[in-house]
Amino acid sequence: MKNIELYKQHHKENEIYGNGGALKFHLRLLADVILETKSKTLLDYGSGKGSIYYDRSIQKHWGGIMPSLYDPAVPEFEKLPDGPFDGVYSIDVMEHIPHEEVPEVLEQIFDRAERFVFLGIATDVSKTILPNGENAHCTVESTDWWEKQILGVNGLGIYTQLHTYGKWNDYRIYNDEHFLNNI
User: How far apart are CA 93 and CA 106, in angstroms?
Assistant: First the structure.
């Protein structure tokens, strides 16, 4: 990711940045898909510091399964696990990825998922300004734009839930038949 060094610096300088707080806004939807798909292995792609799992035990909402954590800007989680995982979720991450890198990141997510992918994506500018003066949300796009990106990389037809919020608020589900055939 081209801005990864800026995010590393921002994480280091701001203790509460990247604590996983956005997860609480998607908690019910995420817990439902984890339980519905009977998922036992999970990957939080873009977990930040992951403190929400340690400070608040948020994983209790889906049976206590601790996900593998990945965030390239956090040294202890910078190695992307190979997988596969039953489910991969990414919340408040994709809007931080430069346009030209979105397909590659989505491929990394879908390549590791066997039962579901859940994406929570902000569709407006961030309150966070990076050390270089740029807004942290470099890819602010409509739900339709994100749908096109997802459908372009989801070749296996993985059951996917997309929740966008901000300028465009929407909730979409793709490939229900994959879900029904694989539980």
Answer: 11
